[in-house]
Amino acid sequence: MSERWKYQIKTGLPFGIFMPIVLTLVEWYYSSFSEAFISIKFLVRLCIFLFVGIFLIGYSNWRAKKKSEEYNKQK
Predict the structure, then answer these.
(1) Staple 20 to which of 3, 45, 47, 61, CB 3.0 to 4.6 Å?
(2) 16-62 tens-digit pLDDT
């Protein structure tokens, strides 16, 4: 696996796991645990946030890291 993908997974995965759990905790306040966490809606939300976290946030962080490394290399 390339260094870029390792970095994207390392930086995007926490976002992809943390955000749906936080949103579901808020939803859990108004419903039961099984309705909030053990549902298709939670799984879909988890998959969407994992995708966004790894591919969009991870990639943008990778680009920022490379840009920073290039800038520091020029100094």
Answers:
(1) 45
(2) 999 999 999 988 888 888 888 888 999 999 999 999 999 999 999 99
Q: Is the pTM of this model over 0.70?
A: yes
8 Å CB contact between 40 and 3 = no
Using CA atoms, how far apart are residues 24 and 31, in angstroms rounded to an integer? Answer: 10
Contact partners, residue 37, CB within 8 Å, separation at least 6: 24, 28
For helices 58-74 and 3-28, what crossing angle results, to 10°? 130
CB atoms within 10 A of CB 2: 7
> CB of 58 within 8 A of CB of 66?
no
